[in-house]
Design goal:
Largest sheet of chain B: 2 strands, antiparallel
Number of strands of chain C: 24
Radius of gyration of chain B: 22 Å
Shape of chain B: globular
Largest sheet of chain C: 6 strands, mixed
CATH superfamily of the largest domain in chain C: P-loop containing nucleotide triphosphate hydrolases
Strand content of chain B: under 5%
Distance between the termini of chain B: 15 Å
Number of domains of chain C: 3
Helix content of chain C: 25-40%
Helix content of chain B: 55-70%
Number of helices of chain B: 16
CATH architecture of chain B: Orthogonal Bundle
Largest interface: B-C, 49 and 70 residues
CATH topology of the largest domain in chain C: Rossmann fold
Oligomer: heterotrimer
Structural class of chain B: mainly alpha
Keywords (chain C): ATP-binding, Nucleotide-binding, Repeat, Transport
CATH architecture of the largest domain in chain C: 3-Layer(aba) Sandwich
GO molecular function (chain C): ATP binding
Shape of chain C: globular
Number of helices of chain C: 18
Strand order of the largest sheet of chain B: 1-2
Distance between the termini of chain C: 48 Å
Number of strands of chain B: 2
Pfam families (chain C): ABC_tran
Structural class of chain C: alpha/beta
Chains: A alpha/beta (345), B mainly alpha (350), C alpha/beta (507)
Strand content of chain C: 25-35%
Organism (chain C): Streptomyces mutomycini
CATH class of the largest domain in chain C: Alpha Beta
CATH class of chain B: Mainly Alpha
InterPro entries (chain C): AAA+_ATPase (IPR003593), ABC_carbohydrate_import_ATPase (IPR050107), ABC_transporter-like_ATP-bd (IPR003439), ABC_transporter-like_CS (IPR017871), P-loop_NTPase (IPR027417)
């Protein structure tokens, strides 16, 4: 059957070349590699006693979480005496508990934990503290203060508050201003906090009304879909606050598709793409409110200091504070250059 | 003897000789429609009813925002990506199988097609990669199920996990922004043909092609036969395994096309793409009258199912209802739609 | 004392489904301790009637009295509480549960209302099985692991686990071998001796003669006779009542040897064997010839047919069509070479029940009506219709769903499929199973005519008269071995039965 074999040969060749092409296409290396900015460690960076830090975080399936991992790793590399034991990220509570227990059994000196679910991991945090391992709780807070030595994290309420004040200032001279909110995953507490802060801030501006709110789920796809609906529902408005820059990529796409530009947009979290757009100033995106992933680097600093029983340089306290809430700065065109290096992709 | 049959069947052999035409065939309502090739399915009629009610609700609650061209374009556009996936899934379900990996395949194909390396090849590179990755994933599903004799539920569940994992590995959790202008342009109003977005045109083309394949080709006929009674199909000389392989390939192909559409729509590739598409697609197919056990289903029904879902979401968003209310109402509407359909179906069964 | 009223009286029962009047005023009277046979063709209303009796269907009209009291059988539970149990043809057992669990399903002996007393259930089940003459069935075994005959026994045990006064048996002997049928009859005798009434449904007239007391014949939703004596009513009368005309259990004339003796064999089977199922078989089949395989269930007859067809892979030997060997174990190769199979389990193995007649007939010849995969549905429908008309399939409606057809017409749809395909060798496995007595003769005529037109037919049947009446040549099988080959005219039923049973442990 020459027909079949020729066809087979054709298909075979096609399949092989397609395969070769595809394997070449998994690369995400940019042509000219941008050099990652190194910021100076905040704590005393003279080498001290060796410290082993265990790090457990959720699965880095999202730009911000990915940046958390990168920040923690690169900061640990800066200290020659620090060994970082990093676990495979997991969104499964049971799996993460197991990972933390493993780290406890390995007798690491300090633990840094970014729980997939703060409440669910409280017990294992207590366990570590009882075993004499200080825990630095990163961002998603445990249910009991006994479960951590030090908490460091962002300020979700403050994010909303600062976004609201920024928008309020921009629109303060406008009568009957309309504002739209594109929230994140609605069944997360942080989304409620952000929305609450935003609403509280807007109460200071009697001329502004929040006319519509929809929740996306931190993905580009949902950002596009929900924003498209909001644009259809509100034919004219003055400002938009989007909780998350990742879904903001989709939101911006929807805005572009609808051909709308009568409003200003404020983002959240501080992604590189958002910062680039703010710097370029060629879209409705004028600002973003930070939820800085640099907190992971700070957590490593704190862990190291705890391991070496030091205080923080620049503070007069003998001990490390028990909690550290980071400020959600508003990044605009004016101060963009300062923050650009912390933008994550 | 489960069904009492009309007595016309019990004529003996002496009545109507071997080849002679017997008494006039019992005429059946709808026979004329069938002859025209317009099989109007009562299940689809009830879905059209649901859609009509939704449109009435939308028009009543938000007359300005709901009833305009922009919103029609929006609803159709938002239906198009999941719609294409649903067409593929409908074939698989009619054949008695299930594909749980569609969302993951869309994610994998969309991120593979938007890596910096792929984007170097421009429009063609992105399209080609999306389609080939979809096909390849479908091929793996098909081979595992047809020749590896794995249960479709398990094989596609495994594909769901590994394709999502691979997508995460490729992106490293980052959002891959598309910079190829020709791809981006297809999502913008300038590219609309007579007011119809290109994505909607692709959706329409896939729907028509799916309908034709299911109703007018040997492939479609064999799909129904395999789903209706796989053993009978095998003993009738149909290559059941090859048919199954082709069906999962088809589902993969639809996912590849959908991934390309999603890249156009969102201007990016992300490993979280296609989140829960498997459930949305299966739900739309079931609402559309496809039997989960196989052997019965229509493309038109599935597409109507998708449109019902998208319209619901649209009406909720326009009325500024929040996620909690949306989810509750969506569940209630699924139940209501299936109940209405069951009633209509029972009323028409003879 | 006044004479005891009948256990059950149903009078003027009507029941309609959309488009069909299934029961059109049926009367039935059952006495305690009798075996009351219910006869009727498919579609006569037997199933609907017993579903009404079981409480599964509600009648539109009519009255039911139970022990002289008017009753409403509003649900299966009501019927069960009165003491009416039904054993359906498709056994409704849960395969993943044990025998004891099935027997007491829904009324398990419990402690504190929810803890199942397993031991008590097992003892109870064992007692019931013993009463049914099958103490060897282990109450702890999974029902799915049991044979069909044993599953039926379990089904009966379940019926008896209630305080039962009337048992409805829907074709209980259909899946049973002769010795198992004997056991079934012993059980029925035992039950009636205890005063339990049995409503017995069967297609087999000889069974009704053996155990029946009275007969009610249904036709087109009416009772055409009520309570005739089962033993003395002439067969001819019963058949006439069922069909509304006089038919003989007739077989078509065999043509003279003529062409067949000289023709080349179209199918040759050489040393075909499957370990554990049947030993090497040799067989030649010429165009125009009907060859029968006679044997008991388990003698390997169906297995041979399915191996020839490629549905099972042989462990030795080969199959040749026109002298060319077929790829072993490939249905597609067999079909491509012109072999067609009408399998034993028509609904499970051959038919797409919800699909139309046309689609069922054309399914094996689709590529013939297609160009580049594109179907020409007009040609398809016409060709399928020509095939069904040639076999006088009723109703003559290509769009009718196959599930609405009678058994005989469903079989014709399967035959039409192979006729359309242009097949040359037809393998028939139990071609008249589930086909009305009245429709069988017609089916025999169709098969003979197909042979006369040049088809070679290989026939398997558990009914010896059928094999003897229809086939030209007969191979008698016992325990996977061909024990005798002869011209059908040289054999009679007794001889074949002797051959089939000879030396087997049951005789």
């Amino acid at each position: 059957m020459p027909e079949t074999s020729r066809r087979g040969l054709l298909f075979g060749t096609a399949a092989v070349s397609a395969g070769a092409f595809l394997t070449a296409c998994t690369s995400n290396e940019p042509k000219e590699k941008a050099v990652a900015q190194s910021n100076q460690p905040a704590a005393d960076d003279k080498p001290g006693t060796p410290v082993t830090i265990g790090f457990a975080g959720p699965q880095a399936d999202h730009g911000w979480l990915n940046a958390i991992n990168v920040q923690a790793k690169s900061r640990a590399e800066k200290y020659s005496e620090v060994t970082l034991e990093i676990t495979e990220g997991s969104n499964d509570t049971a799996a993460q508990i197991g990972q933390v227990k493993t780290l406890i059994n390995k007798k690491v000196d300090v633990l840094v934990i970014l729980p997939a679910d703060g409440k669910a991991l409280t017990q294992v945090g207590l366990e570590a503290m009882k075993a004499g391992i200080p825990v630095v709780n990163l961002d998603r807070i445990f249910a009991s203060p006994q479960a951590y030595r030090c908490w460091v994290g962002g300020d979700n309420y403050g994010m909303g508050l600062n976004a609201g004040h920024y928008i309020g200032e921009q629109l303060k001279d406008k009568a009957n201003a309309k504002v739209v909110e594109l929230a994140g995953i609605d069944n997360l507490e942080l989304t409620k906090q952000r929305s609450q802060g935003f609403a509280d801030a807007l109460k200071n501006y009697s001329n502004i009304k929040l006319v519509a709110r929809q929740a996306a789920d931190f993905t580009v796809e949902s950002g596009q879909a929900k924003m498209a609906q909001l644009l259809q529902a509100q034919k004219q408005f003055d400002a938009l606050w989007n909780h998350d820059d990742d879904q903001g990529v989709g939101a911006l796409r929807a805005i572009q598709q609808a051909g709308r530009d009568e409003f200003i947009m404020v983002g959240g979290a501080g992604a590189k793409s958002a910062m680039d757009a703010i710097k370029a100033d060629d879209s409705v995106l004028k600002a973003t409110v930070l939820y800085p992933p640099t907190m992971a680097a700070s957590a490593i600093d704190l862990a190291r200091a705890l391991g070496q029983s030091k205080g923080i340089a620049g503070l007069s306290e003998m001990e490390i504070p028990t909690s550290l809430t980071l400020y959600s700065a508003v990044v605009t065109k004016e101060n963009i250059d300062q923050y650009l290096p912390t933008g994550f992709s | 003897m489960t069904q009492p049959a009309p007595s016309a069947q019990h004529h003996g052999p002496e009545k109507g000789t071997v080849t002679g035409p017997a008494a006039a065939p019992p005429s059946k309502p709808g026979g004329g429609m069938r002859a025209l090739g317009l099989r109007v399915d009562v299940r689809n009629l009830s879905l059209l009813g649901v859609l009509a009610v939704l449109i009435a609700v939308g028009g009543f609650t938000e007359p300005d925002a709901f009833l305009d061209t922009g919103n029609l374009q929006l609803i159709l556009t938002q239906s198009s990506v999941i719609g294409v996936v649903t067409v593929g899934v409908t074939f698989v379900i009619i054949s008695g199988g299930i594909d749980l990996s569609v969302g993951a395949m869309v994610a994998l194909a969309s991120v593979w097609a938007t890596t910096l390396a792929t984007q170097d090849f421009g429009f063609a590179g992105i399209l080609f990669t999306a389609v080939i990755v979809g096909l390849a994933a479908g091929l793996v599903n098909g081979v595992l199920i047809a020749y590896g004799r794995m249960v479709p539920f398990i094989a596609t569940l495994a594909m769901l996990a590994s394709a999502r994992g691979l997508a995460l590995q490729i992106t490293d959790g980052k959002t891959q922004i598309v910079t190829v202008q020709s791809v981006l342009d297809l999502g913008l109003p300038d590219s609309y043909v007579l007011g119809i977005p290109p994505l909607v045109l692709v959706f329409a083309a896939v729907t028509v092609a799916g309908w034709l394949i299911l109703n007018r080709t040997t492939f479609g006929r064999r799909t129904v036969a395999v789903g209706g009674n796989a053993e009978a199909a095998r003993l009738a000389g149909i290559d059941v395994r090859r048919q199954r392989l082709y069906l999962y390939l088809l589902s993969g192909l639809c996912c590849g096309i959908a991934a390309f559409m999603l890249v156009i729509l969102s201007g990016s590739g992300q490993n979280t793409n296609g989140n829960l598409y498997e459930l949305d697609a299966i739900a739309a197919a079931i609402i559309g009258g496809t039997l989960l056990s196989g052997g019965r289903g229509t493309i038109v029904g599935s597409v109507l199912g998708v449109l019902v879902f998208t319209t619901i979401t649209n009406i909720f968003a326009l009325n500024n209802l929040q996620s909690d209310v949306q989810q509750i109402a969506k569940g209630a509407i699924i139940v209501a739609a299936v109940l209405v359909q069951r009633r209509t179906l029972r009323g028409s069964e003879t | 004392m006044a004479p005891e009223p009948p256990l059950l009286t149903m009078s003027g029962i009507t029941k309609s489904f959309p488009g069909v009047r299934a029961l059109d005023g049926v009367d039935l009277e059952v006495l305690a301790g009798e075996v009351h046979c219910l006869l009727g063709q498919n579609g006569a209303g037997k199933s609907t009637l017993i579903k009404v009796l079981a409480g599964a269907h509600q009648p539109d009209g009519g009255a039911i009295t139970w022990c002289g009291e008017p009753v409403q059988l509003s649900s299966p539970i009501t019927a069960m509480r009165l003491g009416i149990a039904t054993i359906y043809q498709e056994l409704d057992l849960v395969e993943g549960l044990s025998v004891a669990e099935n027997v007491f399903l829904g009324h398990e002996p419990t402690s504190a209302g929810f803890v199942v007393r397993t031991r008590e259930a097992r003892t109870g089940a064992a007692a019931l099985l013993g009463r049914l003459g099958h103490p060897e069935i282990d109450p702890a075994r999974l029902v799915g692991d049991l044979s069909a005959a044993h599953q039926q026994i379990v089904s009966m045990a379940r019926a008896l686990s209630h305080d039962v006064r009337l048992i409805v048996m829907d074709e209980p002997s259909a899946a049973l071998d002769p010795d198992e049928v004997d056991n079934l009859f012993r059980i029925v005798d035992g039950l009636t001796a205890e005063g339990v009434a049995v409503v017995y449904i069967s297609h087999r007239l000889e069974e009704i003669r053996r155990i029946g007391d009275r007969v009610t014949v249904l036709k087109d939703g009416r009772a055409v006779s009520v309570g005739l004596p089962a033993k003395s009513t002439p067969t001819r009368d019963i058949v006439a009542m069922m069909t509304g005309r006089n038919v003989e259990y007739v077989f078509p004339e065999r043509p003279g040897p003529g062409v067949r003796a000289t023709a080349h064999p179209v199918l040759k089977v050489e040393g075909l064997a499957r370990k554990g199922e049947f030993e090497p078989v040799d067989l030649e089949l010429r165009p125009g010839e009907i060859v029968g395989l006679a044997g008991l269930v388990g003698s390997g007859r169906s297995e041979i047919l399915e191996t020839v067809y490629g549905a099972r892979r042989p462990t030795a030997g080969r199959v040749l069509v026109d002298g060319k060997p077929l790829r072993a174990g490939s249905v597609r190769a067999a079909v491509a070479a012109g072999i067609g199979l009408a399998p034993e389990e028509r609904k499970a193995q051959a038919l797409l029940l919800t699909e139309s007649v046309t689609r069922n007939v054309s399914v094996s010849s689709l590529s013939r009506f297609a160009r580049a995969g594109w179907l020409d549905r007009g040609t398809e429908r016409e060709a399928a219709r020509a095939a069904t008309r040639e076999l006088s399939l009723r109703p003559d409606n290509p769009e009718a769903a196959v599930r609405t057809l009678s058994g005989g017409n469903q079989q014709k749809a399967v035959l039409a499929r192979w006729l359309l395909r242009g097949c040359r060798v037809l393998l028939l496995d139990e071609p008249t199973r589930g086909v009305d007595v009245g429709a069988r003769a017609e089916l025999y005529a169709v098969i003979r005519r197909l042979a006369d037109e040049g088809l070679a037919v290989l026939l398997v049947s558990s009914e010896v008269p059928e094999v003897l009446g229809l086939a030209d040549r007969v191979l008698v099988l016992r325990e996977g071995r061909v024990v005798h080959t002869a011209d059908a005219r040289e054999l009679d039923e007794h001889r074949v039965l002797d051959l089939v049973m000879e030396g087997s442990p049951t005789s």
